[in-house]
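Researcher: I'm preparing a figure for a lab meeting and need a structural model of a single chain. I don't have an experimental structure, so a prediction will have to do for now. The sequence is pasted below. Please return the structure as tokens so I can convert it later.
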Amino acid sequence: ESQEAAKRLGVQYLVLDSPDGKLMPTLEVREQIIRLIRQWNADIVMVHRPNDYHPDHRYTSILVQDAAYMVIVPNIVPDTPPLKRNPVFLYTEDRFAKPQPFSPDIVIDITDSWDQKMYAIAAHASQMFEWLPWTAGTLEQVPEGEAARLEWLKKNRRSGEISSEKRQALIRWYG
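Model: Understood. Here is the structure written out token by token.
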């Protein structure tokens, strides 16, 4: 599924070797993430917030936070040269209210790429059309067929409403 999503976006995906639901925030995995961020010479790193519902998402966030400063420290993971400057680390938007609601510092209009994003997300069929609807009690609403599922996903993924806080941030950025 991840490889298909990457193909739909025209990007490369790297999936670390951790079975679904079993990621742990270990030193070994943190060092792996430090190496990858350095190898990519990342300018921007985006990650879930650490209060996500899925343990893999939470622990990924913790691991990236723990790696954030260390990517520029030379004697940490000395087999991979440190970055000369720290990337910008960003959280992706979520709807979690506790311990506090998401509050954007930067808002980027993705209207023009929304359909492509939904097409890529739809490649994760087991998540988008099986287990997420199952856990939400809406599995019976998932239509059959790729086109119908994609339209259902677009309709149900976001309401399309822009909060006043996000609208103000968009105005600041785009006028």
